[in-house]
Write a structure and sequence with these properties.
Elements: E1 7-10, E2 17-21, H1 32-38, E3 43-47, H2 63-76, E4 82-87, H3 89-100, E5 105-111, H4 123-131, H5 140-148, H6 154-161, E6 164-167, E7 170-173, H7 177-188, E8 202-207, H8 215-224, E9 228-233, H9 240-243, H10 245-257
Parallel strand pairs: 2-3, 2-4, 4-5, 5-8, 8-9
Antiparallel strand pairs: 1-3, 6-7
Length: 259
């Protein structure tokens, strides 16, 4: 059963529609720097995935379900087709939809992810977040200090702490932590789509300093997306759109605008 996704919107509706899909532990807010760079060229729809941001929490979560949520949003907005741009988990949602309902996808852009299974580095992070005592928490700085022992990367902690919000006098996570823990095997993997191919144009952008797209996974990409172009942003890591927003936006605009 699809959930009704919360979304942001920018750009004139007469422009080509581009849907931006965030990664695990993210939200539509992550894309705001890219939105500012693309809103004059595209009609932008930027949803929060289920169990993230302001979208509903559910006990079930996998890529077919998330693609169903996206299709329901497109139907609600009367969008027969759209360009898709997904980062990490959002890239897997976009790939699944392109492979299974290619008639709804014009062009596909996937940022620093491949349709393969990844090792689980996230359960320890989820356990630390779930175990954080939010009662009497002074604020994000205090939460950052509590997380720092288990999550040494300041960049990762800042990314996670975007999800910590104050409602009234109490702090809470916008993420559905228990739902994400239960769904992690599905999110780390990718459904079996060996019989499918996306016949359209696709762009796969990966960070030169990221290890998310290996040579083996590039071969899988080319099998499922035979018309895929591969681009690397030198010096960029996994959050390439945030680290190099101008270069990232140029790649996206050139690809989507090229007829």
């Amino acid at each position: 059963m699809p959930v009704e996704l919360h979304y942001r919107e920018a750009g004139a509706p007469v422009l080509p529609t581009l849907i931006l899909l965030h990664g695990l532990f993210g939200s539509s807010a992550n894309w705001m720097g890219i939105v500012k760079r693309l809103e004059k060229q595209f009609h932008l729809i930027v949803p929060d995935s289920r169990n993230h941001g302001r979208s509903p929490h559910t006990t079930e979560m996998d890529y077919p379900l998330m693609a169903g949520d996206l299709l329901a949003l497109m139907d609600r907005l009367h969008l027969d087709t759209a360009h898709l741009l997904g980062h990490s988990m959002g890239g897997k949602v976009a790939m699944w939809l392109a492979l299974n309902m290619s008639d709804r996808v014009e062009k596909l852009v996937v940022a620093d992810i491949a349709p393969v299974t990844y090792p689980d580095h996230f359960q320890p992070i989820l356990q630390v977040m779930s175990g954080l005592d939010l009662e009497g928490l002074a604020g994000r700085r205090a939460a950052d200090a509590l997380l720092s022992g288990s999550v040494p990367s300041l960049e990762v902690r800042q990314y996670l702490l975007q999800n910590l919000v104050k409602i009234g006098n109490h702090w809470q996570w916008r993420l559905n932590l228990s739902g994400l823990q239960d769904a992690m095997p599905e999110l780390l993997g990718f459904p079996d789509v060996t019989a499918a191919q996306f016949p359209g144009a696709a762009l796969f952008i990966h960070g030169g300093s990221s290890d998310y797209v290996s040579s083996d996974s590039r071969a899988v990409i080319k099998t499922l997306f035979p018309y895929a172009r591969m681009r690397q942003l030198a010096g960029a890591g996994h959050w390439l759109y945030a680290e190099q927003p101008d270069a990232f936006s140029r790649q996206v605009t050139l690809f989507l605008s090229n007829r």
